[in-house]
Amino acid sequence: MVDDDSKGAQVLKEILTAQDFRVDWVRNGDEAVKKAREESPDLVLLEAILPGFSGFEVCQILKQDKVTHSIPVIMLSGRAVGIRDKVAGFDAGADDYLTKPFEADELVARIRAVLRRYEVSDDFEEVIEKEGISLDVTRATVRVKEKLISLRPKEFDLLYLLMKKAGRVLTRSYLLESIWGYEYFGDTRTVDVHIRRLREKLGEPVARKIRTVEGKGYMFVEGE
């Protein structure tokens, strides 16, 4: 848990400890990044407004670091949050975004939901291969014509869903709800930004397999 508010952090720690979570608390972004790299926690609960590095910057650092990129992050904000703040949080790689004040039960439910999305059983293996792309779900790796491609978690999830449902148009609101795990709140630009980055990393010609369907969303095409 990353929060510079001692009183609020102590309350959250007591709530989560009562639910059988082990909670380590740090007060700033530098400490958060250091601890995440050293201890690889199951989840980071990250305040958006911090001294020094903001929570948005910390989240981006964690998600771009090869050691910490697979650690889920839930961002919290104590200020009035608008669409732009939420988009910024999700663009930074956050897995969920919760605005204070909130009910303790909601926080616990969201933590458990995010953790479930990251769980993979030891005997589960899934590899999807289409159009020169090999996506290994178990190892969270992507290869394009045998070349390893580095994707951020949300980019990986987008590619997985598009390939899994190849030939079907997936709306932006569907992608938001499926991948970001929050209700559609009126701004789908975050999906477009991630699709653009995904295409850039995949490179031509395979990037063309992710087709824009005007006014609707995106589709992975095969055999064209």
Can you offer a commentary on this structure?
This protein has 2 domains: 113 residues, Response regulator (Rossmann fold); 94 residues, Arc Repressor Mutant, subunit A (Orthogonal Bundle). It has 224 residues and is α+β, with helices and mostly antiparallel strands. The protein has a 4-stranded antiparallel β-sheet, covered by helices on one side. Strands 1-2-3 form a 3-stranded parallel β-sheet, sandwiched between helices. The protein has 8 helices and 10 strands. The chain is elongated, with a radius of gyration of 18 Å. Helix 2 packs parallel to helix 3, helix 4 runs parallel beside helix 8 and helix 6 crosses helix 8.
SSE topology sketch:
Blueprint: H1 6-18, H2 29-39, E1 44-47, H3 55-64, E2 73-77, H4 83-91, E3 96-99, H5 104-118, E4 127-130, E5 133-136, E6 141-144, E7 147-149, H6 153-164, E8 170-171, H7 172-180, H8 189-202, E9 210-213, E10 217-220
Helix pairs in contact: 2-3, 4-8, 6-8
